[in-house]
Prior knowledge:
Layout: H1 21-27, H2 32-43, H3 48-122, H4 125-138, E1 143-153, H5 174-186, E2 191-194, E3 197-198, E4 205-208, E5 211-214, E6 217-219, E7 223-228, H6 233-238, H7 241-253, E8 256-267
Antiparallel strand pairs: 1-7, 1-8, 2-3, 2-7, 4-5, 5-6
Amino acid sequence: MTAAGGDGSRGPSARVYTPDFLTELFRNPLEPGYAAAAARRKQTPPSRWRRVLSRPVSLVVLATIGLLLAVAYRETVAEEPSRAKARAGLITEIKRREAETDRLTDRADQLREEVGRARDAALSGSQAYRLRNLEAGTGLGRVRGDGVVVRLADAPPDKNAVTGADAGPSRVLYSDLQKVANDLWAAGAEAVAINGQRLTATSTIRSAGEAILVDYRPVTSPYEVTAIGPGSMRGRFDDSRAAALMREVARTTGLSFGVKKAGGLTLPAAPQPRLRYAVPSVSPSPSPSGSKATGSSSSGPSRSGTSPSPSGGVR
């Protein structure tokens, strides 16, 4: 008995294999349209004028591209000295301004100490002692004592496994310094400073690009957060969330994190804050006739915009 085909070449269990898509793709990678276009070009070669014109056009295009590249390279090389000179000038100006700021800061500290001595001499002992305690508490006075030093440092630079270039170190973030400072306050710190910058109630710790600013002054790695406080501060800070987080970050990223007790610490005073004073609003000028405004009374709100106190007086 033969199969349904009638030619006896296929049995009942014979299978028909169709070409696989990937097999066909590798067997004929060229698009059929491109192959047809190439075959037409072989059958009808370009005209003589086209061959004659194609070479000069190609040469002109190549010459133009070469000229543009040469001009761009020359302009880049010509501007490089001026850019390097401008950059060096900016670096010199920044260093000069930083040195001037440090000099003025030292002078301000000296003047502050002179004012403090003259004030203590003019006041009684109890009043001077109370003012010194207030200055220490608000950060406006230099303090000494025992405490804790928390040290954080960026990780060393790594090498990219593919290119071999520096992948950049794992850096300490401004938020890390914020967490450490806040938990030191919570642990009982009486005074805190970061790399010598004293923190107060109005201090800011923020980032500007890759730099970290403490009260608008840049600080760099390694970062030392120094705190003066009671003897129990070290243990309470070790149990804090910031310490646990930084230990985990140091273990996984290679950052340096350490906490140690220290004695005889001296924290400088913070810069004098810029005080803002409230001033009463200007009262409107009286009318030419000298008459009072209609509906005004002594019990109503004052014309200067101040609100009456509960006792009836004006604040």
